[in-house]
Automatic annotation (TrEMBL):
Signal peptide: none annotated. GO terms for cellular component: ATP-binding cassette (ABC) transporter complex. InterPro entries: ABC-2_transport_permease, ABC2_TM, ABC2_TM_bact-type, ABC_2_transport. It is found in: Cell inner membrane; Membrane. This is Transport permease protein. The chain crosses the membrane at residues 60-78, 85-104, 137-163, 175-198, 210-228, 264-287. It is a multi-pass membrane protein. Residues 1-24 are annotated as: Disordered.
Amino acid sequence: MANQPHFTAPSHNNQPHSGSDKRQFPQQGVPIIDGVNRLGLWTLYMKEVRRFIKVQTQTIWAPAVTTLLFLVIFTVAMGRGNREVLGVNFATFVAPGLIMMGMMNNAFQNASFSFLAGKIQGTIVDYLMPPLSTGEMMAGMIAGAVTRGVLVGLALAGAMLLWPGVTLTVAHPWAVLWFGLMGTVLLSLIGLLSSIWAEKFDHNAAVTNFVVQPLALLSGTFYVIDNLSPMFQSVSRMNPFFYVISGFRFGFLGQSDIGGTNEAVLHGALALGVLNAVLALLVYRVLKSGWKLKG
């Protein structure tokens, strides 16, 4: 038996077998991408942005014009006689709230469309297959929705500056940035959760019509809650949209109906940040579980 050929077990160290093959492959189960997949995250973000930019007439300019009509109607109906609210004319009072409402609504619309369209069109795999972690996928989609909200807000602000009687002077830049960001993130998270849950566009429309729109319209955009009865004031203070609208308005006017002091506004800002953190954790858990996304 000594003259039998000797066989050597094949090597599994994944080393190249010839000088012409310089590729080296990692062991099975060893991740290729370490840390944050920046390229993948940027690609997903740009996909979301380009999706609404291609139809910007519908996604940016049309919502801006629709929201601007609120300013026209309410100014004509309620702003006559030099009416003042919080020490400014009615048009200046209502303008920041309308800007924030437009930003929130469009952030929701953008985030609530992504997964839902993928499930209906059968392209959901385009979101689930790329080498992105749950947090990266969630961050990319929320960033895209926030970008749309900000662009709508800028379009609205530019248009309102041309409206007679409107003055948009920033009194507290931190409040404009914080409440603007937190408001759009809040609606992006709600929209993303709605997109995961919904199975058809009717479901998404139900969330818009019965949750988002009522909370937005009853958030103090067109009035101060001091004019309401004590019971409805308490109800308004349980509405998170109220703190977004009033805090954003505080950034421009230096006054709000959250409370009589700046400390009350800071408490509202902190509470809004905590709410977003809790909601983000919930959305992350649901997204990671694959509920209604993976068969």
